[in-house]
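Model: You mentioned two targets. I'll fold them one after the other.
Researcher: Yes, keep them separate.
Model: Target one:
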Amino acid sequence: MSVFDMQEPQGFVAVEQDDLRTLFGQSAAVYAAFVGPEHVVETANPAFHAAVGEERALLGRAVAEVLPERGDQGFVALLNQVYRTGEPSTGRDVRVVLGTGPHAREAFFDLTCEPRRDRDGGVAGVRVIGVETTQVKHAQRLMAEHRALLEQIARQAPLTEVLDGMARCIEELTPDEILVSVLLADADGRHLRHGAAPSLPDFYNEAIDGIATGEGVGSCGTAAHRREPVIVTDIATDPFWDDFRPLADRAGLGACWSTPILARDGTLLGTFAMYHRTARAPQEADLALARLFADTAALAVERHRSEVAQREAEARAEAARKALAEAVRAERELRAEAERRADAAAELNAQMRAAAAAQANAPHPEHCQLGGTAGCAAAAEIKVADSWGDSAWGCPVHVEEALIHVRSVFIAGEELGGLAAYLHR
């Protein structure tokens, strides 16, 4: 099954395209002119200023001063090449590290560099025209990761693996440090369980595992309750976090933006949260990123729930099949046992009839045979027998006692002093 066989939530494709435009819009062209072997900035347009950093004073300064950052500066190498050879050159995805320390960012540019010549034809400097491709590269990486996630969902990878990979992908690709958390709703939608949060501390994940959904229950509990995004820009002051503020302080969290994960029918599946170390409000690109991956998480959770339901249905069907097979087997065994008992009873009955017939031809004693050691002088009038084929004649009194006290004794037959004699005693 391919990722294209999976059904998307209604409107997902259109919303996704809008969000991608927001995340990765067009970049403005940059222009700058440099002079001398040190590449002193002679002029630059606003886009170049913005790319390098508005706070930097560029004009009249060498590139080495403007971009003192360490690392392989492909941009400087390209300028050196054009200045040295006098030949124009084009660089694709030239890497430049802008800024230092925690504010440093990696940028990429498509650049066309041309030599600037003096009156004598010598190379006096270099002019650069280009477009920043950082957003394009980030888009390519993000969409590659996004496709990989969809392929994981399509091949039925474990839900925890998909969600953990998604969280790590977002954390790695966003320029600002964020910590991603996915909580999954219980079947009743009243509680949220830990799904994935690879960068949040374990004590934090354990503490919020199982939180209730409801108004004012942090960012995630409230988003789940409202079925709409909840943006908390400052955890330290927001009343939604009154009950969780000490926990957030311990984890070093300053802001939390939570988006509900909803099924196609509107059922709550969970929440997708983006935490920040400092208080801050989201930009439109942040919200677009949250929507994109909340929809992706919805696909993963729905697929997982569908698979679980299918496995449970198959297990119930298999259990029912086994129970039916066991019932059929037991019924067959009972039927066979009943037939065996019937055959045995018929055989025993035939033996008893044969024994009774043989006894019928035996001499009829004159006196009762059931008087015990003391004997009984009464006339032998009634014949009795037992299951082992033994028989005896007795008087009505002793026959009555034998029938009452000896369970295996029965009237031997209707004729020859049998049942008729007993009934007319």
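Model: Target two:
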Amino acid sequence: MATSLSRAERVARLCAETALFMRDHVLSVVSHDMRSPLNAVHSWAYVLERKIDAGDATAQRALTGIRTGIEQQVKLLEDVVDTTRSETRKLAIEREPFGLRALVDAAVGEVRAGLADARGVTIVVDTPLTSEQVTGDRERISQALWLMLTFATEASARGGTVLLAAASIGTSAHFNVAYSPSPQTLTDESLPHLLEAFARRQAQEPREAGRIAWVLSLCRRVAEAHGGAFEQAMPEAGKSATLALHVPLMAG
């Protein structure tokens, strides 16, 4: 943790990093999801070309307009969306050994002071960690753990409990956050919040299998940059929701 920063500055920086990676993730979704229908329209334009009379000037102008529109949209994706994404596409990782227990204690302390205490949410730590170490980017992994705990706190009702289970299992460090979601708290503006309103609203929307809430994109990027994995499991009936971050002990 950067000791030169005040608590408020540290929280502001963490929120800014969260927003930056969410922007990058949204642009990735837009780029991917827009190309599929554009490719389909492009293919159907060729089908129509073979069916329409070449001498029909109006139909030919319509086909030209369709192709021009597709080309303009693809160029927009390449020039604006893909170019913007390229700024953060490669996540720089600075690797060094550091203690896992100290990382856990620091992240939990930040979230308690920054949001959980004000929200009346209890963070419980379940860990056998003592002197175990991981080789990776301490700051990035700390950011991911902070975001997991903050999101779980944001989604929990007053009096709720967020459980962090942290352990060294085999060749990986495992961080699992469990909480009982109360979706309305994400958008209740009478409560203290750290995450952007847009991100909190989107987190309540139904998602396809394998997709995570946009606001958690930093967690996935950090995990993948270290050769690990991040998962968001939605709650089943009578069960809590979970967030899981796994990072190799010799990350990268």
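Researcher: Noted. Anything on target two?
Model: Residues 96-248 form a domain with the Heat Shock Protein 90 fold (CATH 3.30.565.10).
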